[in-house]
Amino acid sequence: MRIILFGATGMVGQGVLRECLVDGDVTRVLCVGRRPSGEQHPKLHELVVPDLYDYSAVLGQLRDYDACFFCLGVSSVGMKEDDYRRVTYDLTLAAGRTLARLNPQMTFIYVSGAGSDSTERGSVMWARVKGATENALMRLPFKAAYMFRPGFIEPMHGVRSKTALYQAAYVIARPIFGLLQRWAPDRVTTSVKVGRAMLMAAKRGAPTPLVEVPDINRLGG
Q: Which of 51, 95, 131, 197 has the smallest set of CB atoms within 10 Å of its CB?
């Protein structure tokens, strides 16, 4: 299986990349981003794209892939809706539309978030934008498209957040992850389970296009 991965340097993307590289069914991983991931592995290839809204110069390098794992995203904290929509909806759809045209047989998996608003009309800005992004992706002519909605993710195997505040929160919360998984199992997952669940969905499909935390844990278990 040949996979395109966006967001390999982020916390979710790091975990997904690790699971792709250790999976025997994966033969090639192409990491697409504005800068290299910094990882080295025989399966891993890098494609640096300075403008992630425009893939016209690299179309030939994006063909013949079986799945795309889109783990790229930013926090909405302090952002106006138009700005957040541009770096969430517009950027994701630029990649999605390009890949749907080049690889209609592809499975596209998007990391959204628990609480995303499929109606696009709720009061929470980020949830509206994420919901609109999900809806637009599911209308593209892929073989399949799955919207992953993780809640609280426990980073494993050295995975770290690029955002200092988030990384500090993970460090503080590390001693209570076990309690969280016991008290709120439908809200907590791990970076390992997210990566394995994506691979399972790409190989065999998922029960529903909207993949919530319990689904992630079942698929990745």
A: 51
The residue assigned the tokens 């709120």 is 184
Tokens of 102: 């080049």
Query: Residue 149's pLDDT is what?
Result: 97
Interval 122-133: pLDDT, tens: 999 999 999 999
Q: Where are the alpha helices (DSSP H) in 103-190?
A: 125-138, 164-173, 177-183
Q: Rg of the chain's alpha carbons, rounded to an integer?
A: 16
- As given in the structure block, the two tokens for residue 78 are 């302090």
DSSP string, 57-68: TSGGGG-S-SEE
Closest CA to 31 of 202, 20, 22, 23: 20
In terms of Cα–Cα distance, which of 58, 102, 92 is closest to 72? 92
pTM check: above 0.70: yes
pLDDT of residue 205: 97
Residue 4: which of 71, 87, 52 has the closest Cα?
Answer: 71
The three-state secondary structure class of 65 is coil
3 state SS of 29: strand
